[in-house]
Amino acid sequence: MKNLILTAVMTGLIMNIAPRNSLAAHPELARLDQIKFSVPPVSRYQLDNGLVVYAVKDNTLPMIHVSALVHTGSARDPQGKTGLASLTVQLLRDGGTARYKAEEIDKTLEYLGAQLDAAAYTEDSLAEMSVLKKDFGRALDIYADVMRNPAFEAEKVKIARDETLEVIRRRNDDPSRSLGREAKRMFYGKEHPYGRRIEAETINAVTTDDMKAFYSQYFRPNNTVLVVSGDYSSDEELLKEIKARFGDWQRADVPEFKAPAAAYAGGRQIYFINKATPQAFIAILQKGVQRTSAENYPLTILTDILGGGLQSRMFVEVRTKRGLAYSVGTYPAEYSQSGYIATTCGTKPETYSQALTEMLHQLKYAGEAPVTPAELERSKGATINPFVFKFSTPHKLAMQKAEEEFYGFPKGYLDNYVEKISGVTQGSVLDAGKRFLNPDDALIFVIGDARKFDKPLSDFGVVTELKED
Amino acid sequence: MRSLAILPVLLLCCAPLRAADGAKMQDLPPGTQIESDPKYPPVVTYTLKNGLKLLILEKKFVPTASFAMAFRVGNVDCPSGKTGLAHVFEHMAFKGTKTMNTSDYGKEKAVLARIEETAKALIAEESRAAADPAKVKELREKLSSLEKEAGKYIVDAEFAGTYDRLGSSEMNAYTYVDETVYQVSLPASRLEAWMIMESDRFKNPVLREFYKERSVIMEERRRSEANPGQVAMENLYASAFKAHPYRNPTLGWMDDLKKLTRTDAENFYATFYVPNNATLAIVGDVRPAEVIRLAEKYFGDWKPHALPQTEYTVEPEQKAEKRMTVFFDTKPRLYMGFHNPGENHPDMPALIMLAEVLSNGKTGRFYRNLVEGKQLVLGAGANASGMMSRYPSLFTIVAFPKAPHTSAEAEAAVWQEIDALKTAPPTAWEMEKVLNNYEADVVRSLEGSLDLATSLSRGDRISGDWKYNWKLLEQLKALKPEDISAAARKYLTRGNYTEVELAQPEAAPAEAAKAVEKK
Lengths: 469, 519
Prior knowledge:
The complex is a heterodimer. Chain A has helices at residues 2-10, 27-30, 84-94, 102-111, 136-148, 154-169, 175-188, 200-204, 208-218, 235-246, 296-307, 313-320, 352-366, 373-384, 394-406, 413-422, 426-436; strands at 43-46, 52-57, 63-70, 115-120, 125-132, 224-230, 268-274, 280-287, 325-334, 339-347, 442-448, 463-466. Chain A is α+β, with helices and mostly antiparallel strands. Chain A has two domains: 43-246, 2-Layer Sandwich (Cytochrome Bc1 Complex, Chain A, domain 1), CATH 3.30.830; 264-466, CATH 3.30.830.10. A six-stranded mixed sheet of chain A has the order 1-2-6-3-5-4, with helices on both faces. In chain A, strands 9-10-8-11-7-12 form a six-stranded mixed sheet, sandwiched between helices. In chain A, helix 3 (84-94) crosses helix 6, helix 11 (296-307) crosses helix 17 and helix 12 (313-320) packs antiparallel against helix 13 (352-366). The model of chain A is unreliable at 1-22 (pLDDT under 50). Chain B is an alpha+beta fold. Chain B has two domains: 72-180 and 188-275 and 292-299, Cytochrome Bc1 Complex, Chain A, domain 1; 322-518, CATH 3.30.830.10. Chain B has helices at 6-19, 85-92, 105-127, 133-151, 158-166, 191-203, 210-225, 228-240, 254-259, 262-272, 288-299, 348-359, 365-373, 407-423, 428-445, 450-463, 468-477, 481-491, 509-518; strands spanning 33-34, 44-47, 53-58, 64-71, 169-175, 180-187, 278-284, 322-327, 333-339, 377-383, 394-401, 497-503. In chain B, helix 2 (85-92) packs across helix 10 (262-272) and helix 6 runs parallel beside helix 11 (288-299). Chains A and B meet through helix 4, strand 5, helix 6, helix 12 and strand 9 of A and helix 1, helix 5, strand 5, helix 6 and helix 7 of B.
């Protein structure tokens, strides 16, 4: 164990990462084995029209959850009509259906204490409902009509569009929220499906016909996975209910999505918005991988060690030892076709350069020296032992299995996850550090009050100043 | 009003929890109670001799257990001039013990004493009207070099890292005006590990790295100063309360933070962190008999002592309309507050129902009339108590005007809704809908484990009864429509009203900041 201290000192890193077995204080804890957990079985069915159904029956509480995952989102917005997906999916819930006026849906569901929400994200859309068992049939009638026969009532379209316009007006109210959005926009490109924003012009350009066309292109049974869990009587009964409502939903070809390359090609790029705000907000974005990539195993461990929690290097060095920040961390973000790794921090402008210097140093060091065996052991424990929590309720279990298929993970992904994480080595983590975390290949985005900066941002490279809009 | 089928659903909801191979009285020590009323979940209650109360609920899906330890101590209990201390201690409770996060506590302790002496001298010098810059610099350098020396004995994040290895999920803690709650979920087989970790944490904490952590908390405070919602709420409570400590922000005033010492935090710990001030709730795949045995083993020797009286200055009747405009670089936002009578007051259920009639869902009056009808606001919400409960707090309303409409228009429209309810009670349908929602939410609350554990421990220690949410449902059910109008007339009045709106500074933001700096 002494060697570890030596390694740290020799590399010039003032880092004192658990130079002994961290269970030494309470040796009885060291006896504890790795948690063994096998993912419980989940029923999977497929209707003739292609609709896949995952179901977990659990009669503990009189509640049933229904979720639909649909392959569509803002990344599918046509050029010049950004916001189409988000408006369309919101209006599935809010805009009425062929059978039910919007007001009737609100009144019926809210009276029953049922919850129904629908929203589009970047590549996926999600419609979620929870309802007491006694009202399941009635609520499922509405849910099915929402999914299959949206009406896009004109008044509701106006309300939803105005709401989007107001959200656009308010998008810079909180700089910590602007940061991620604007950094991503520069990373992927202002017109890139993963990077673009909804603008007043683009949301105003969306017509009801656009929404109808968008809906009918993507909301198809063969493009959807339905997830049901809770207090239903039997899988047979449940399938009967589902077939009665979704069995004649027509399948259709759904266009493939191809994401263009990110605008960011490498090198050090710095963007800055000068704003009088009590903290400077920093984001460092680097190239990551797609969601299903096998490179995620070492990257999961690497980003956890680097910036994943109270014991991570970023946290210990920037927060605990230097008191420079409350929030600091590194996390990977994944899409179907590419991803990024973000390192973020909020720190007072008078010492922002110390925080940024340390963050860059840690990124660099991750590619220079292997993580210590103690770090590796801790991080694996922290990834493997809480694996059970991904499945801690019937609906979480059903969703995990559904997402495994929906996102196109290789067969057995969940069953093999622990083994794959166990197989991560110091070498594979170092290799990931070298390839992904070179601080010279980093896009740095800062929002802060330049007059209070202890050093000019240009000390870190060529700065492009942007205006908040 | 039609009678509602609340009880049968609750029976259904709790019965399966009971049907499991649940606790059997003969296995449990004397003094244990098992809740037998089928309206409530079958919680097992046991109090250690030192006053630590245990609430245990067996719940099996996968083998996990969730833990919430609630202490009846929050920001209201901070001594004058030491706002934020409760939250500072909560941060320090992650810094280890006499055996965790340290390689040699004996040596470390001596350095910590010198750090404390130096920090106190530094704070004293910095607080002087004419502080000597040379002396401040010297003391800062001395503090920094002593901190480096102490750093040699520190094992970084050992406490958190151990939880990591054990397989923790959602490890966290929160401090609020009334309470401090420590939370974590673990694989169920780690029950004894939790007992080892937490008994050590609360019996033997060492508040190392205090002054660095204080800097972290100042960053947390700056972060909140950049957040328009937090800025508005802080102003609302600081203006509505002129005497009671609910006026102080949980994060503390910056000037108080600068003067807090490790000694302050240690005194605070010694005063309030005693077993007779805590309730531990455990929800998950655990056996009550084993939980009780282990709790006795690890927490049984934790020394209790009498708690100080915590009857703080009672807020005098407001008798004024208070209005303020806070300049902040944001689009307009409106925050309204009315003093409520406190959560255990008989008028409270009517105020809760009133808030729900106004803002529950898309059929609530705010959405129907302000978002849709008049199309004045992006959204609006009402909350009868903001989760505070030890003392009377605020009924709050928040609204975001939609351009080109103003906060003044939104405020007038909110008042119209309030005034309408004063004269015409809500319809039976509106109230039934709220009851049905509460009923469904009580079932939903049993789905998660950590939230349930938090709610049980908080309910017991802060609201005085872990059945608080279930009983509230019964109280809501007993309300008559005219009770809501009466509550609106009694509490939502101009003389009991504080209004805060956020508005753009008149000058451009950059220039405004400059002007502030020159002062």
